[in-house]
């Protein structure tokens, strides 16, 4: 054997030592094969023993020892094949029993036992001795190696070598080769000894290397778990045998070792390798053992794995489902409460993880039993109160687990109305800090939007808003600079979209819903109102248009007036509390249009009131020049759309538009808006009139005023551009038949524009003006040539 000292060795030294050992293995295996090929069995066994002796090392870490083990056992396959061919052939001259006894005289115990197992497999196949006696002898002989690492790999070799030899026959079958009980006994003994060796590794070496040993042990756990895998592969293992023999043995070994890593792995291994039907039949026994595990075991992993597996089984298409006599949720809930109560030091995130597994079980296996899910949230809330946990940060382990818990019923139900049946949901959500509450609430709102979950009842509004109140009203723990937060803006946009989900076939009920939402939003403060009130107003306008088709309703007029009053107050709040004057102006104008479309008695009064309020905002609150132009353009366009205003109401509005146009700060804006007012005098429709008013006199006055304003502009380019714009308006109204617009005026303006253009120096801006003017003249020629009454155009000189 290579001389290797036992000491802490770095990775490079491990590679070097492994290479040295592998060179010996390669050399000895070559000699072994050469001896066996020439029939020298004894010399071959001698070289095999020297090759196996490399596994006596204690200097290699589990990872490197495993690589050495693989190479050695691969070479032993050659020896096994040779012995099988030699001793099991028809022409055999000696008995395997003699060789089985011979290899027991090997000098070192490691080579002795590896050879004994290799020869024992051949001995088993030879039928020279009772088979189970051979297996019992092998498993007992392996007790001679008590070094954890070497012993684990030796017993792993025993298990893998005998994998195909274990009898798998029912216990009532007597063929002399063993039964199922014999196989179980063999595997359980091997499993018990391997687990003891594995646990012993934790207590060897200095305490400062504890983490290193734990890591190495986790690397070796699959060696122990292979025993349980082999047990699960026994074809005739039934539920009764599993309940009475296998599970008690495994649980006894797991509980008695009192070592957290071993206990947790073995429990998880049982869950993974044995069938779901076995778990259902032994649920109470398994869960009772969980309560006896060490406090160091992450019990959340064990319970979570079992619950998730049975939940998947319960809903699988080919599954028969959970038997009616097994109250799965009650069993898990009772044991989870017992485990949590018995572990005072359990971290909060582990407690929540167990509750998360229970919620998964409740919503997947019992989707119609919302009381089960509510029970989980109630117990979670009680636990929080007991351990006095609150304001949980969203980005620590506890917060992440809690957010995961809260999202499960949202995702599974995909119906927030059903979620509202969980009365204990909101108290659990409130345990989060501000950011966590807003994230959870946003998730709920997004789910409602994705699934078009209609809010049809006032009770629904109240409960939903209670859950998402972190998005609706100021919170004591909210950050100072909310307005600049992108998250806040996204959250409020979600809340705004929530209004679109409000709907009820009953118009009165729909309005009551809007009223309730408006009151809730009203408590949101200035920062939130700018997002939440606009959709309420739009929704109210849509409701009014629905009312327009339901005139047979009782007190129809009063109800319509009430909704317009509601809209007026909401716009006032938007304007005064949220300082959104320009948006308020737009809503007033939209309200006027809606009122004009609904044929109720107060339609003209309401329309006029809305427009006059819009003018008030324009005159008192809007001072920036560009905003004034935009607002006045909207005012003119809205007034022009009115169809049911009497002249005594329409006339002051038209005149006010004309006055406001002449008071704009910039002359170009004045000229353009005065031209726009001209359209107002031509195309507006008065109540009880089916035709446009076509006030040619006022149109001519407006255009004349526009020319006067344009002539006052000092910049030539701006002035000419205005002339072209005014000329286009003159041509338009001339074509529309406005008698006050004559061809003399058009000719004068054309000549004036031509002269002005000729006086400018060449420039790109001049080219654009020439192009625009040419387009106007081309249009004039087209009108002249295509108009049926072309004689009207004879006086126009182009």
TrEMBL record:
It is a peripheral membrane protein. It is found in: Cytoplasm; Golgi apparatus membrane; Membrane. GO terms for biological process: intracellular protein transport; retrograde transport, endosome to Golgi. Pfam families: Vps35 (PF03635). Keywords: Cytoplasm, Golgi apparatus, Membrane, Protein transport, Transport. One of its GO terms (cellular component) is late endosome. Its main location: cytoplasm. Plays a role in vesicular protein sorting. Belongs to the VPS35 family. This is Vacuolar protein sorting-associated protein 35. It comes from Acrobeloides nanus.
